[in-house]
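We both want to read C-alpha coordinates more fluently, so let's practise on a single case. Once you have written the record down, we can walk along the chain together.
***
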Amino acid sequence: MYAVTGITGRVGGGAGGTLLNAGLTVRAVVRNAAKGVAGKERGCEVALADMKGAPAPTAAFTGVNGAFVLIPSNFDRTPGLPEVRAVITALTTAIEAAQPPKVVCLSTIGAQATRPNLLNQLGMVDR
Protein backbone atom coordinates (compact mmCIF):
# COMPACT_ATOMS: atom_id res chain seq x y z
CA MET A 1 0.00 0.00 0.00
CA TYR A 2 1.15 3.51 -0.84
CA ALA A 3 -0.09 6.71 0.80
CA VAL A 4 -0.61 9.60 -1.59
CA THR A 5 -1.31 13.17 -0.48
CA GLY A 6 -2.80 15.64 -2.92
CA ILE A 7 -4.48 12.80 -4.80
CA THR A 8 -7.39 15.02 -5.84
CA GLY A 9 -5.03 17.32 -7.74
CA ARG A 10 -3.13 16.91 -10.97
CA VAL A 11 0.23 15.71 -9.62
CA GLY A 12 -1.02 13.63 -6.70
CA GLY A 13 -3.79 12.25 -8.91
CA GLY A 14 -1.21 11.24 -11.49
CA ALA A 15 0.93 9.53 -8.86
CA GLY A 16 -2.07 7.72 -7.40
CA GLY A 17 -3.37 6.73 -10.82
CA THR A 18 0.00 5.32 -11.83
CA LEU A 19 0.13 3.20 -8.70
CA LEU A 20 -3.46 1.98 -9.18
CA ASN A 21 -2.81 1.18 -12.86
CA ALA A 22 0.16 -0.91 -11.78
CA GLY A 23 -2.18 -2.97 -9.58
CA LEU A 24 -0.90 -1.52 -6.31
CA THR A 25 -3.10 -0.44 -3.43
CA VAL A 26 -3.36 3.23 -2.57
CA ARG A 27 -4.36 5.12 0.55
CA ALA A 28 -5.71 8.48 -0.59
CA VAL A 29 -4.77 11.06 2.04
CA VAL A 30 -7.33 13.88 1.85
CA ARG A 31 -8.07 16.95 3.96
CA ASN A 32 -11.85 16.71 3.85
CA ALA A 33 -14.30 13.84 3.60
CA ALA A 34 -16.00 15.15 0.45
CA LYS A 35 -12.74 14.75 -1.47
CA GLY A 36 -12.41 11.20 -0.18
CA VAL A 37 -15.44 10.11 -2.20
CA ALA A 38 -13.48 10.35 -5.45
CA GLY A 39 -10.68 8.29 -3.93
CA LYS A 40 -13.09 5.54 -2.89
CA GLU A 41 -14.61 5.53 -6.37
CA ARG A 42 -11.13 4.93 -7.78
CA GLY A 43 -10.60 1.99 -5.43
CA CYS A 44 -8.47 3.71 -2.82
CA GLU A 45 -8.56 3.35 0.90
CA VAL A 46 -9.19 6.86 2.24
CA ALA A 47 -7.47 8.54 5.18
CA LEU A 48 -8.73 11.90 6.41
CA ALA A 49 -5.72 13.95 7.48
CA ASP A 50 -5.43 17.69 8.02
CA MET A 51 -1.77 18.53 7.49
CA LYS A 52 -1.67 21.06 10.33
CA GLY A 53 -1.30 18.42 13.04
CA ALA A 54 0.75 15.24 13.22
CA PRO A 55 -1.65 12.55 14.53
CA ALA A 56 -3.77 12.13 11.38
CA PRO A 57 -0.86 12.09 8.90
CA THR A 58 0.97 9.67 11.21
CA ALA A 59 -1.98 7.27 10.99
CA ALA A 60 -2.18 7.78 7.21
CA PHE A 61 1.51 6.96 6.73
CA THR A 62 1.60 4.00 9.13
CA GLY A 63 1.87 0.56 7.57
CA VAL A 64 2.53 1.72 4.02
CA ASN A 65 5.35 0.72 1.66
CA GLY A 66 5.87 4.32 0.68
CA ALA A 67 4.40 7.80 0.82
CA PHE A 68 4.07 10.50 -1.83
CA VAL A 69 3.95 13.83 -0.05
CA LEU A 70 3.21 17.31 -1.26
CA ILE A 71 2.16 20.23 0.87
CA PRO A 72 -1.16 21.99 0.38
CA SER A 73 -0.96 25.14 -1.74
CA ASN A 74 -0.70 28.38 0.22
CA PHE A 75 -1.15 31.41 -2.00
CA ASP A 76 -2.10 33.79 0.82
CA ARG A 77 1.08 33.70 2.79
CA THR A 78 1.78 35.39 6.08
CA PRO A 79 5.26 36.91 6.55
CA GLY A 80 7.59 34.21 7.83
CA LEU A 81 5.29 31.50 6.43
CA PRO A 82 4.02 30.19 9.81
CA GLU A 83 1.31 28.11 8.13
CA VAL A 84 3.85 26.29 5.99
CA ARG A 85 6.18 25.84 8.95
CA ALA A 86 3.32 24.19 10.89
CA VAL A 87 2.62 21.79 8.00
CA ILE A 88 6.32 20.93 7.69
CA THR A 89 6.56 20.24 11.43
CA ALA A 90 3.45 18.05 11.33
CA LEU A 91 4.65 16.09 8.29
CA THR A 92 8.16 15.65 9.69
CA THR A 93 6.75 14.37 12.97
CA ALA A 94 4.33 12.05 11.14
CA ILE A 95 7.01 10.58 8.87
CA GLU A 96 9.42 10.06 11.76
CA ALA A 97 6.70 8.33 13.79
CA ALA A 98 5.20 6.21 10.98
CA GLN A 99 8.56 5.28 9.42
CA PRO A 100 7.38 4.51 5.87
CA PRO A 101 10.29 2.78 4.10
CA LYS A 102 10.19 5.23 1.20
CA VAL A 103 9.08 8.86 0.97
CA VAL A 104 8.88 10.97 -2.16
CA CYS A 105 8.32 14.66 -1.56
CA LEU A 106 7.33 16.97 -4.39
CA SER A 107 9.48 20.05 -4.94
CA THR A 108 9.86 22.42 -7.87
CA ILE A 109 12.45 24.16 -9.94
CA GLY A 110 13.24 27.44 -8.25
CA ALA A 111 12.60 26.18 -4.71
CA GLN A 112 16.15 27.21 -3.86
CA ALA A 113 15.40 30.88 -4.65
CA THR A 114 16.56 33.32 -2.00
CA ARG A 115 14.27 36.20 -2.94
CA PRO A 116 10.85 35.88 -1.22
CA ASN A 117 8.31 34.17 -3.47
CA LEU A 118 5.77 31.33 -3.40
CA LEU A 119 8.46 28.78 -4.26
CA ASN A 120 10.23 29.43 -0.95
CA GLN A 121 7.61 27.21 0.69
CA LEU A 122 8.87 24.18 -1.22
CA GLY A 123 12.46 25.10 -0.50
CA MET A 124 11.56 24.94 3.19
CA VAL A 125 10.08 21.47 2.66
CA ASP A 126 13.24 20.38 0.83
CA ARG A 127 15.40 21.36 3.76
Observations:
- The longest helix spans residues 82-98.
- The mean pLDDT is 86.
- Residues 76 and 118 are 9 Å apart (CA to CA).
- DSSP finds five helices and five strands in the chain.
